[in-house]
Amino acid sequence: MNDTQNPAATAKTSRPNRFVEKLLADRHSVPLSIALHLVPGALIVAVYALIAAPFTRAVGYPIFLAWAIALAIVLFPLQFGLLWLGKKRTGRYTMRGGVAHYREKPFSRGKITAIGIGFLVYMTVVALSLIPLDSFMFDTFFTWIPYEGAGGSATAYLDAYSRQFILITMLICLPFTGFTLPLIEEYYFRGFLLPRLPQLGKWAPLFNTVLFSVYHFWAPWTVLSKIVFLLPGVWFVWRKHDIRASIWMHPGSALLMTAVGVVAIALGIM
Asked: Do 74 and 43 contact (CB within 8 A), yes or no?
């Protein structure tokens, strides 16, 4: 009996198609969207605890490196998953074909560059100004967090190590935590998940921003500050359908602050 006459074989071959169709649908149910927002964060914490932290402690490097490793182990396959969805729809590995949205480029390159720089400056300045809020939230509600180096300080995961080890760690992490991994997050959270919440209307950007902030399970004391400095850029991407704005804002700001940090450490300023 061939597969077309075998109900079990038919069901087996149709399941992946239904799965892909569900992910690529124009609308995700709210429970599905919540899961797709938060599961990657839970996986990052699991990889950190089981693999990255033991390895980093064994080699004697700052625990910040463990979080960079955990993020890479989870986010690179997540990016491949988006490309795989593109292959299922178009026959080639791509995020086009309805996988990642908001790539229509409604603004000229010059205009979006100016807008993006504005968001980059906004996020950088506001994020730095809200560090006292992060410290207050940590000291008030999250001192029980068991992660090594946890704290409201922007450099908590690097404290207590020599400048040489910190500099090596930052140089290793610069191309990853400084740009590539935030870029993957933007394509996934803003390009893939945000457009698939039309039923939430104007609340979609807030929903996406809150869940993205909570997704950072390794730093729950920063949820409020992340909502504040991310929401304007997320709203803009949702309203104007141009993901380049949040790419400028999020990976751009991460790259700027990481690069400045590396230079400051190298010069002995930090």
From this structure: yes
Q: 116-163: per-residue pLDDT in tens?
A: 999 999 999 999 999 999 999 999 999 999 888 787 666 666 767 778
Contact status, residue 266 vs residue 167, Cβ threshold 8 Å: yes
Gap between the Cα atoms of 135 and 113, Å rounded: 33
Measure the CA–CA gap between 107 and 109, rounded to whole angstroms.
6
Judge contact between 251 and 117, C-beta under 8 A. no
Instruction: Check if the beta carbon of residue 175 is closer than 8 Å to that of residue 82.
Output: no
pTM for this entry:
0.91
Nearest to 237 by CA among 100, 85, 127: 100
Report helix angle 30-47 to 204-215, nearest 10: 20
The residue whose two tokens read 């400028």 is 248
Domain-by-domain residue ranges, the chain?
26-90+112-266
- Torsional class of 201: left (φ above 0), alpha (ψ -120 to 50), beta (otherwise): left
d(CA 112, CA 106): 9
